[in-house]
Design a protein that fits this description.
With about 90 residues, this protein is mostly helical. It contains one helix and no strands. About 100% of the residues lie in helices and about 0% in strands.
């Protein structure tokens, strides 16, 4: 009789243990899902930053080309003025 009570008590404790383990796994799954969502949002933000940086880079290249073209045209005009005075 004593052995039967021990088995029932052990079975009951195993059931409680299983329930707690399942609850913890569920909580961990929820936390992991939240982390995944945060990482997805972070990835989206990083893509936006990349797009902005690429846009700034294109603007800087265009500005550099514009300045270079203006300088070359200016040097050409100065050379033409010098040649005209000779």
């Amino acid at each position: 009789m004593h052995l039967m009570a021990r088995e029932e008590w052990t079975d009951g404790k195993l059931g409680e243990f299983e329930k707690r383990v399942n609850e913890r796994f569920d909580a961990t799954d929820r936390q992991l899902e939240e982390v995944k969502e945060r990482l997805d949002r972070m990835e989206d933000r990083m893509e936006q930053v990349d797009e902005r940086l690429f846009s700034v880079g294109r603007t800087m290249v265009a500005a550099t080309i514009g300045i270079s073209t203006t300088m070359i045209a200016g040097f050409g005009a100065m050379a033409a003025a010098i040649v005209a005075t000779l």
